[in-house]
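Entry: Acyl-CoA thioesterase II
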Amino acid sequence: MPTKNAGSQSLSAHEVNVTPIVDVLTLVPGQERDVYHGLKAQLWTPIWARGIYGGTLMSQALVAAMQTVPQDLNVHSMHCFFDHAADDKDDIVYHVERTSDGRSFAARMVRASQRAKTVFHCRVNFMRKSRTGDKLVHSSPMPENDRPPPDVVIIDSITQAGNTSESRPCDCVRCPLDPPSIAPHDRKLRHWMRARGVIKEALRGDAQSSAQRLHTASLAFMTDLYFISTVYRAHGARRFTSTAFAHSLSETVASGSQERLDAAQQFIRLAGQEERSELSDSRGADREIGMMATLNHAIFFHCTEFRADEWMLAEMDTPWAGEERGLTMQRIWGMDGQLLATCVQEGVVRLRQRRPARSSKMA
């Protein structure tokens, strides 16, 4: 259970009274072959978002694909496409197509639908562990300047955008930003992340699955944390501190429960404080984000043995933005310095356009 420490709540990876990530990743088999259901009770909609968290769709689709391949096949990549916003009002249904099965490789296409409408689809690629022998090996080194958080974390240090729900299945602690003098395409944004609780079991309902598959799916869930926001944060633009955002969010939750309204107000306050601290000396703080949405997301898995319930360092950058889109790159390392995964994401990033001032002169 959370404890008190010096007047602030603290959180241990081994003492968490929240819904564990294994619940999010538990799918219910359908009546047809290779059909699985993600229950609506496990679909998380961020208070500020139009639809459910994208990492839920990616990780559940990966779990569905894993259920259709032998245990000695490990996922090495998945390529995801977000077609329509999904909500938490109905279950998500995952249909798996067995695209190919070879001696070394296998591929699966997964289509996620809600109310008979496709909301997401992806291709998941698997490979048997390579044979022993001489191999070409290299990887990017882990940054050395950012120390991992302690096992027991002061809740105030957790990224505020992720600290509004007690059922959040993972922790995220941001690292200090690069100086604003660095150009947007050169800025690095880093955070530490981990699954809450201790992952001990294999995927429920899959007799041939190992616990490692649950760690891999948990990592897929976390790869979407604050990923596309790299684009506007690299520019020092505003999202959560604008009056228009606060007004829009308040209108969105006005018809909901008092609990949701209170959560929205708390989020505006906490996320605003966090954003203002980042924008204290930013050159782009006069620009506001009007709309953001992920278009596609790719994950390349490099390691088959790691723990997602231990701290992992994610480093993100954005090599390009234009035409109201942005591209982001992410590298993720384990505590031992091993490069676990590389991710690429493209999304829509639109600025709020200011209306030109009307002339007071008569025509």
